[in-house]
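COMPLEX REQUEST
Ligand: FE2/S2 (inorganic) cluster
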Amino acid sequence: MSLIRDAIDAVRRLVPEALPGALPSEAPPDPLIDARRVIGTPLSRVDGPLKVAGKARFAAEVPLDGLVYAALRYSAVARGRIAVLDTAAAEAAPGVLLVMTHRNAPRLSPPPLMMADPRGAAASSLPVMQDATIRWNGEPVALVVAATQEQAEHAASLIRIDYEAEAAALSFDAAKPHAAPPGDILGEPTTIKVGDAEAAVAGAAFRVDRIYRTPRHNHCAIEPHAVTVAWEGDSLTIHDATQMVHLTRSTMAAVFGIAEEQVRVLSPFVGGGFGNKAVWNHHVLAAAAARMVNRPVRLALSREGVFRATGGRTLTEQRVALGAKADGTLAGLIHSGVTGITSHNQCPEQFSFPARHLYAADSFLITQSAVELDMVANTFMRAPGESIGTFALESAIDELAETMGLDPVELRRRLEPERDPTSGLAFSSRHLVEAYRRGAERFGWDRRNPTPRARRDGDWLIGQGVATATYPYYRMPGGEARIRLRADGHAVVQMAAHEMGMGTATVQAQQAAERLGLPVERVTFEYGDSALPRGTLAGGSSQSASIAAAVAAAQAVLVEQLLRLAGNDSPLAGLKPAEVEARDGGLCYRDDPRRCESYASILRRAGQDELVAEAAAPPPAETQAYSMHSYGAQFCELRVNAVTGETRVTRWVGSFNTGRILNPKTAASQFRGGIIMGLGLALTEETLFDERTGRIMNPSLADYHVPVHLDVPEIDVIWNDIPDPHSPLGLHGIGEIGITGVGAAVANAVHNATGIRVRELPITLDKLL
Amino acid sequence: MRFIINGQSVERALDARTSLLDLLRDHLHLTGTKKGCNQGACGACTVLVEGERINACLALAVQYQERPITTIEGLGEEVALHPLQRAFIEHDGFQCGYCTPGQICSAVGMMAEAGRGVPSAVTADLDGDSVDLTHDELRERMSGNLCRCGAHNGIIEAIQAAMAPAPAQAAPVKEDAR
Ligand code: FES
Ligand code: FES
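STATUS: Structure written out below.
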């Protein structure tokens, strides 16, 4: 990931000679690491009234004068050329303003690729509608603009397209023998080798050596992708549903050859993202069309369009081999495998990441390779890699526990490492054993019967399973925040961040209020607009830490300014920034709380209505000095019907260690949301890819089965709430950890219920009959 | 064509192909009703017609002339929310908020159905005058409304809280952790 590589480089530039462990470990913890005045309170979402009243405006809902509507046609072959293209009937259809194909589309640069180009938000680097070549089944090949949506869609259906199809790489199994390691895995080495793990496993007293398979998945945010775009001269405004407003701005500027300042991206509400809301073809096509018709254009993808023209999680085949000694420690740990990718993206699906940090072993072989397929670019989807990597690894650990006759929680306790087992770095904050202890107690794990198929209620076989959850701590470099402190004692904090359901407006106002010593009602957090100070992308569960670091930096600048402004007539006279703290709507001397002055008083005396401070976050040096991860223990109880093979999850406890929790109400929802998406991953979700044609066969919410209400039991989530001494505010992002470990916890519970090990997701009825 | 939406009469000349959903969103700018699939699979477009819940994406606008239609905008406004809307906020029955108007309208229609004794797939007594909305009944009856953010627990809690007879104050939040 170039972003991560950039961060590493930035740190190395700062401290060129630095050794890991030698740099920011000296940095003192955030002084607010234990502050609990506003942080930690279960505030309801501040944008709740807007959302429940239907007044939160999403990208496809922005009214613009003269707006016209676009519809797309998608290629019907996976590889080849457009041979015949007849647009006459479409052009003559009522209401049609434009039929755009590769013949008349403006010449545009290919979009800069996310994770490869520092400007890039594009999930694929392929040029968009620039020639007759087809690279995947579902690639947009024509766009119609008309006065109404109905007219545009009807006209798009009238376009006649014939293809000269070419042989395409569509079969994963056929391509597997040609799998090759990618250059790196998001900035990490592709292969980690410590000792001779193959020999260690082969010679071990207890062995497990298994292949696990996971299918393609789609994000299925309920809001389909949409843009409403308008040009004014050479300036472009995009109302978007995006997880990366600034990168979208730079990507679109590069495509159209204009300055970044000429592009504005607004995205105040995103109806779910989960990794999918980056720049895809529709952004480029809508903006090109709007320029051609000289009118604002809305392009809202159909649900089928979302499945075919934006990518999802790719498929994997993974091998986990474990060799254990009699005392329950590991002699060797092997996690290897293959993923399917394309030639035009950078998303390796890092399934091998969990094994790098989870368990102690004498030897390791961790490696992943990839095959290139002719398909829509696969992309990041909630806990890319970790979600399905933990399915394989944590299923294998359960198999090993069974082989050894050990309780799986006890086995994990014995495998607990003192330092990161592959990097050798100290853990910043682990507490996984504590999460297991608390989770097991809450769940009643000690009452579990370890014998498979031993509990039954009529036709229902009852089982319990457990698995470890893990996801890295990331903080993205380059974020900037602005604080506008007003004389009326209200602060507006601005940063071009994103709200896709995480509770950004609420939680970020809470942490800023804590930092500023203000009541939360007097802090507003503004985000979702590229005109604001530079935001970092909402991905990798990094956004809260990225914002917290930028706000802390801006607050430090604000304090300096306030002290200067306060001057000699203030009780604060003569104090240095390090000697004061923000409290009760002003600043106070740390050593004498009576020496205080309110912001309002400082600003009024200086005759100022407002004070503005802006700063960039320091580079994320902490991630170079420590092994920083979140952890958790997922406990599942379920029933499998002995007659039909149907699995119903009945009880869940997720116990997490994710640094400090900023808002228990919204955090519980994020954990639950991840776990519920994990239930889909475990039991029902699979994007069906026709290996003859490269076409996705179930591009609809009727045929791709996400969990519905009746699939979801009450989900109990708890957390250690131990601050990480090396992260801003002691926090870790929590958007992704919830989904990790869920697949394995379900599979392990299914085994406990039925005696059947399912090593290929999803665990559908047929696999249990 | 004349429509009665949230108690107001509106006239529009429409393409006969226009769905009720597109009428609301594109022609009347009542964008509280959401489009998640446009094929009847997600429930984001749920509105109430004469008190019954329907998927507006599967309805042609032309068929719904002169029939009282209630959308989320007609249920309550930001400053004067419906008790169910308030309960959704209190119980965190949403994250991104995109499925939310559909969940809320659906829940209103669902409660009325149960009150009339309409059975569901999990109803034991098919002859009852009304149905007791147990946890399973609620989950079954709300299963036509997808939520990808995973707010299911909060949604069901919110509906239960709104159904609970008085006191009208917010129900206590479940102690989640620690
Ligand atoms: S939009 Fe109508 S059911 Fe999905
Ligand atoms: S709240 Fe996002 S889909 Fe339900």
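REMARKS: The first strand of chain A starts at residue 68 and ends at 74. The longest helix of chain A spans residues 543-566.
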